């Protein structure tokens, strides 16, 4: 599925960039050119990126990713 019509970027391209380390929309822009034209694809691109990470990274490892902040567990 095409995410970015301006630059011909597909969902697969974004997932590939995510696998290669893209963590933010800015990373996706640099890796693929997505969202650097009209910008209307930015929200969908970010959603695809977030889905790619949630599918490829087990929840317990997300704390180890750059940009993730530690949250103290709350008592029940
Ligand atoms: S559709 Fe992606 S920049 Fe225009």
Write a compact overview of the structure shown.
With 76 residues, the chain is mostly helical. The chain has three helices and two strands. FE2/S2 (inorganic) cluster is lined by residues 4-7, 34-41.
Superfamily at the CATH H level? Answer: BFD-like [2Fe-2S]-binding domain
Cα-atom Rg, whole angstroms? 14 Å
The separation of the N and C termini measures: 43 Å
CATH third-level topology: Arc Repressor Mutant, subunit A
Number of domains: 1
Order of strands across the widest beta sheet? Answer: 1-2
* Biggest β-sheet strands, sense, barrel: 2 strands, antiparallel
Features:
42% helix, mainly alpha, Arc Repressor Mutant, subunit A, 76 residues, single chain
Structural topology:
Elements: E1 2-4, E2 9-10, H1 11-19, H2 25-32, H3 42-56
Antiparallel strand pairs: 1-2
Helix pairs in contact: 1-2, 1-3
FE2/S2 (inorganic) cluster (FES) binds at residues 4-7, 34-41.
What can you see in these coordinates?
- With 76 residues, the protein is mainly α.
- The chain has one domain: Orthogonal Bundle (Arc Repressor Mutant, subunit A).
- The chain has three helices and two strands, in the order ββααα.
- It has a two-stranded antiparallel ribbon.
- The longest helix is centred in the middle third of the chain and has 15 residues.
- The radius of gyration is 14 Å and the shape is elongated.
- The model has no long low-confidence stretch (mean pLDDT 87).
- The structure holds FE2/S2 (inorganic) cluster (FES).
- FE2/S2 (inorganic) cluster binds next to loops.
């Amino acid at each position: 599925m095409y995410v970015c019509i301006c630059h011909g970027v597909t969902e697969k391209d974004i997932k590939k960039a995510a696998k290669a380390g893209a963590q933010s929309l800015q990373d996706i822009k640099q890796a693929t050119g997505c969202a650097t034209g009209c910008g209307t694809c930015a929200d969908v691109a970010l959603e695809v990126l977030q889905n790619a990470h949630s599918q490829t990274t087990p929840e317990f490892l997300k704390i180890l990713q750059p940009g993730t902040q530690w949250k103290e567990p709350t008592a029940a």
